[in-house]
Amino acid sequence: MSDTWLLRAQQRLAAAGRRRPWVLDLLVTVPVILSGLRDIFGGEKPGHGGPFGDQEFGTLPPAVTAALVAVMVVALWWRRRAPAVVLAVVLAVVLGSWLAGAWIQSGMAMLLALYALARHGNLRTLAWACAGTAVMVVAGLFFLLSVEHPWTSAFFMIGTGTAAVALALTVRTRAAYLAALEDRARRLEVERDQRERLTAAAERSRVAREMHDIVGHNLSVMIGLADGGAVLAASRGESTAEPLRLIGETGRQALGELRRVLGVLRDGTTDARLSPQPGVADLDDLVRRVRAAGLTVEYRTDGDVRTLGGGLQLTVYRIVQEALTNTLKHAGAGSRATVTVHAEDDTVRVTVRDTGPSGGFTAPDGDEPGHGLAGIRERAGLYGGEVIAGPDAAGGWQVEALLNDRPVTVA
């Protein structure tokens, strides 16, 4: 319980020092100022009844004492940035007073300077500074001040200095340990994110391989059968040669798009060697393939649609493709459809109308209506678009999408 309290107190003190370092610096100098006031205005000198014995020390003029105390206080303000220089200044002040045969209350300043050097300074410099301080203390107590109990006095001063250095090194080691733990935590977090990305990439690669093995194989078989049937029908002069050729061509296009999607799943990026994404210019081929499937399609454009952005052209193409696919599924091959793409200013309007089922056609079993429209709405939403879909007054079906010529930025 006490350890927890001490840890929290240390954390709060460190946080306060980071927010307002000048407050802590001011508090540190208060004991030095208070002890210096005794020397400036007179009072009992250290050594009476203490480790120094009954030796009487000399005094300095109050103005000189005040100046020396002020030098030590100002120097302590810089103990974080230049701890070695601060210790040298404090020791110079102490040595100067001892050479004059006087004693000033400089013990607190010396301890603070040693603590700052051990906490923030170079460790090699600290070793030399500790040795020099010990030599100066011994020389001063034995030869300059000639105290009554020099060995006791030296032990007391060197012992308190050693305690200050030990405390500073403990705090410094703990701070380095905590910094190492924080750095390790950051590294572990980065490694965890990397493992998650690698796991996701491996899963995408696995899904891509499975889809390629299953769907790609079936498409390849379908393309081979369609090409073989087209060659056989052409050799026999049958009219089914052209539809079979279109089936093979459509299958090859689907296989190419499948490989493109699988490449994104596997690598996370598209392959520049693959064919480009379809656009408005490819709608003629799309309409031709749909007509070959038996659906009568009328297609026209208004405005300069070929200058639209690549992403918007892909969205227009996919909306028309999905709408015509829904017409084939739900209205049948005997119906008629009208496709209109109108570009004006910054908007594009895509309209696909059909005449509805003909000849009693019904959608095949297992069909799931609504997924195609959901995909159309999602694509239109990327360009801030609106989609209106539903039956019209003539009994057919109409899909109308209004798109903006710029993608929507998701916050």
From TrEMBL:
Q: One cellular component GO annotation, for this chain's record?
A: membrane
Single GO molecular function: protein dimerization activity
Q: What PANTHER family is this protein classified in?
A: NITRATE/NITRITE SENSOR PROTEIN NARX-RELATED (PTHR24421), NITRATE_NITRITE SENSOR PROTEIN NARQ (PTHR24421:SF10)
In this chain the DUF7134 domain maps to 16-174
Q: Which InterPro entries match?
A: DUF7134, HATPase_C_sf, HATPase_dom, Sensor_HK_TwoCompSys, Sig_transdc_His_kin_sub3_dim/P
Limits of the Signal transduction histidine kinase subgroup 3 dimerisation and phosphoacceptor domain: 203-268
Catalytic activity annotated for this protein?
ATP + protein L-histidine = ADP + protein N-phospho-L-histidine
Q: Membrane-crossing residues?
A: 21-40, 60-78, 85-106, 126-147, 154-171
| Superkingdom of this protein's organism | Bacteria
Which CDD domains does the record match to this protein? HATPase_UhpB-NarQ-NarX-like
Keywords attached to this Swiss-Prot or TrEMBL record, sorted alphabetically, are: ATP-binding, Kinase, Membrane, Nucleotide-binding, Phosphoprotein, Transferase, Transmembrane, Transmembrane helix, Two-component regulatory system
- A Pfam family that this protein carries is DUF7134
> Record's SUPFAM superfamilies?
ATPase domain of HSP90 chaperone/DNA topoisomerase II/histidine kinase (SSF55874)
Q: What is its EC number?
A: 2.7.13.3
Instruction: Determine if Transmembrane is one of this entry's keywords.
Output: yes
The protein depicted here goes by the name histidine kinase
Answer whether the UniProt record assigns the keyword Transmembrane helix to this protein.
Answer: yes
Histidine kinase/HSP90-like ATPase domain residues are 313-401
